[in-house]
UniProtKB/TrEMBL annotation:
Domain Beta-lactamase-related positions: 25-356
Protein name, UniProt field: Beta-lactamase family protein
Family matches, as InterPro entries: Beta-lactam-related (IPR001466), Beta-lactam/transpept-like (IPR012338), Diverse_Enzym_Activities (IPR050789)
Stored SUPFAM superfamilies: beta-lactamase/transpeptidase-like (SSF56601)
Amino acid sequence: MPFPLPTADAAAMGFRTEQLERLVALIDRHIADGHYPGCQIALARNGKLALVRSFGNAATQPDRRRATDDTLWLLYSNTKVIVAATMWALAERGAIRFVDRVADHVPEFKKNGKGAITLLQLLTHQGGFPNAVVPKDAWDDHAKLRQVVCDFSLEWTPGSKVHYHGLSAHWVAGVVIEAVTGKDFRDVVRETVLEPLGLGNDLFMGVGPALAARVSDMHYQPPLGGTPQNDPDNNAAEWRRAGIPGGGGYGTARGMAALYQMMLADGVLNNHRLVSPRTLQYALRNWTGDRVDEFMGMPMHRGIGPHLRGTTEAIRGLGSIASPRAFGHGGVGTSYCWADPDSGVSFAYITNNRVPDPWHSWRLDHIANLVHTAIL
C-alpha cells in the first residue's frame, strides 16, 4: 500500500531549515541524556511530507533494536483522534448524531443515572465517569465489555464539569460503534478510516504477533530517575492486541501527520473523502470554551477528538505560540500530534518512554514551538 503523501523538500515547502536542525539537535540531546530510548517525528504541509526522522532505539531489552521509519509506536491517547474520526464518518452516514444519547444506541447504558449522557458530552470529556475501569478480561470479550461500560457509575452530573476521561469514555465509544455497525470496533476503524485513507500500513487499532518486529517497546521512567525500564503492562500481548480505543492504537509519525493532513484538506486524503468540510467544522469546534479541565488544570478547548489552542495563556502540547486555530492531541507522557489550519502544517512527535511532568510538558512546548517558528 503506497503512502498517501508524496515527499518534497522542506525548504521549498516554506520551512526554515535552521529551526528544523535545532529540532533534530534537541531530540538528539534528549536521547543522549537518557530521557527516552527512541523517537520518531514527521512534518507535512499542504498534502506533502517534508520530513520524517527516526531516532535511537525501538527496543532496549534484551537486545537493542534501532528505530526505523517503519517502526510502530504506542500512540496512547492519540488513538482517541482515530476513534473520533470513525465517529465523524458514522455520523455522516446517518448511523449516529452527536446530540444522540448513548442510551439511544445502547439502551442498558442508562443504568446508574447515565441515561441523559450525549455522544457530544462523552467525546468532550463531560460524561461524568473519568475514573471508570474496564478489566482486562473484557478487552477481547466485547459482550462483557458492553456489560461493564453499562455498569459504570457516575462521579458527578454529566455536563457539569470538564474532566479528562483517560480511557473510560472511549471504551463507551467503542461499544456504540459496535452497536450501530454490528462489527468489532477495531474492524470498523480499519475499514472506515485507515484503509480508505491509505494508512492501513501505518496506523493500527491493536497489533498482533505478525507486526512484532515493527513495534517499539514502551518504557517508563523509574520514580527515582535512571535508565528507562521496559513497561511489562504496555508491552504485554493482550495490551497490544486489544486496540484500547482510548489509548491502545499503534502507528508511525508519518501516519499521524497524514491523518491530520486529511483534516486540513477538508476531509480528503488518498483521493478519498472521509467526511465533509461541514462535519469537520462541527467536530473541530471548541465545545468547552475556556472552562478548566479539572484533570489538566487548565482550559483545553475540547473538540470532538482533538482539542484546540484557543487564546488562553497556557495550553498542553500544541505549543504556546501556536495559532489559536491549531488543534491536536497527545499521548500520556510520550507524544503529541497536531495541525495548523493557518499554515497547512501537521506534525507528529512520538517517543517510547512515559515521563512525568513538569519535564514532559516543558519538552512538548519546546518541540512544538521549534516547529511553529520553522513555518514561513
